[in-house]
Amino acid sequence: MPPEETTPSPPRSSPDEPGRPGQSPPRATTDQPHRPDPSPAPVAREPRWHAPAEAATAPVGAQSQASAHPQASAGSASIPNPTAPSTDHAGSPTHAPTSSATAGIEVVDVRRAFGSVQAVRSMTFTAAPGSVTALIGPNGAGKTTLLLMLASLLAPDAGSIRIGGVDPIADPRVARRVLGWMPDVLGTWRTLSPRVVLRMMGRLHGMPTHVARARADELVAVVGLEQLADRPSRVLSRGQQQRLGLARALVHRPRVLLLDEPAAGLDPASRVQLRGLLRDLATDGCTVLVSSHDLGELDEVADASVFVEAGEAVSGDRLASARGSSTTWRIRSLDPAALSLALGRIGVAIDRIRVEGPSTTVVIDADAHAADLLARLVAAGVPIVHFAPTVGDIERTFLGLSGQTGAPGLPAPGRVQQRGGVR
Ligand SMILES: Nc1ncnc2c1ncn2[C@@H]1O[C@H](COP(=O)(O)OP(=O)(O)OP(=O)(O)O)[C@@H](O)[C@H]1O
């Protein structure tokens, strides 16, 4: 059983260890009882929370619904592949058998209602192994409901789900060996320390005591909780609880990782570290599906994205239209006057240019035109120090879907008047 279901009633906080607010068990999002957590699993070492900077800043791949682009990240060569055939602590196979063709997430026409509320209307998408897929949508779109169904904690009314080739509804015990689940709010034993919580999770996953102990020690370091590892969990801050929640999801080295708002409450440095960890896990072959409202974060880490609106995946046509044909680029130069002059000489239409403090923004129709403009500015001797879109692909698409542009005050890209040298 997951800790939130088996957690004994929390004792009162002692005076020297005051409990933190908001540490009650997770919100009830289902109308069904949660099922037991996944069982055992194997393996060796782990990508670290303190990931290499280059992995943390890996560029975003092409963002497209229901497509994924496995992306190699630097600094991960020594990390073992969690999808490799594995054995249990006695040397016997423990993972559910999966083929590479079915190792990711497959969702076909999944539906779920709560009474008269159709939370998930019709969801179809895939998430590929070795990639981070973003799950994006406004409040109430159905993301958490979908994740609960993927995590085998909520039965769909209709449709088909495969997690690593396993049907989580028909075969939840096997599915739970494959998947790791990090809910948006951590439910845990408030009086137990993170180290003990992780040991218990290891034992619940079927690990022998000494293996569970070693795994807990390892994970405490992976998520950077060494200093608090032996304090009661109730003293953890929101961000520290997130770290423990992630460690808990990783205990059995899952091949599919489902994360609901994992960066909530994390400080900026921790967010960078989380991105590095997720990239490393994906590089190792893990299928990572992450729901978040932090579109900038997702733009940094995701290889693919699934946009959800009113319980449905947004169609490719709508996504293409939402992305629009133009992008606003931000340019900074050591010599702003030279930049303005050069933009005029190159023939950029005045209505596409906007000066915003030390930056200049320019609406440009295509990446190739942006590259051409940059080359011309450099050739003109303008000392450029920054040249990038004002928002990432995911954010631009989300804003397009919600009818907003990425740059307040600028016309919507699709409505920019077509004149001037750079489109
Ligand atoms: N247990 C429940 N009983 C009744 N309605 C529910 C239940 N869980 C979710 N809903 C409803 O289903 C819809 C989808 O909720 P869900 O939590 O999946 O959205 P979400 O996309 O995760 O939202 P958010 O981004 O705000 O977390 C909402 O209208 C919500 O009110």
Automatic annotation (TrEMBL):
KW Transport (keyword) present: yes
Keywords: ATP-binding, Nucleotide-binding, Transport
SUPFAM superfamilies cross-referenced by the UniProt entry: P-loop containing nucleoside triphosphate hydrolases
Domain ABC transporter: 105-335
Pfam families membership: ABC_tran
Region: Disordered, residue numbers: 1-103
InterPro entries attached to this UniProt entry: AAA+_ATPase, ABC_transporter-like_ATP-bd, P-loop_NTPase
Biased composition (Pro residues): 1-13
Gene3D superfamilies: P-loop containing nucleotide triphosphate hydrolases
Top-rank taxon: Bacteria
Comp. bias (Low complexity): 52-78
SMART domains in the cross-refs: AAA
Keyword Transcription listed: no
Transmembrane segments: none
GO molecular function: ATP binding
Family per record: Belongs to the ABC transporter superfamily.
Protein's recorded name: ABC transporter ATP-binding protein
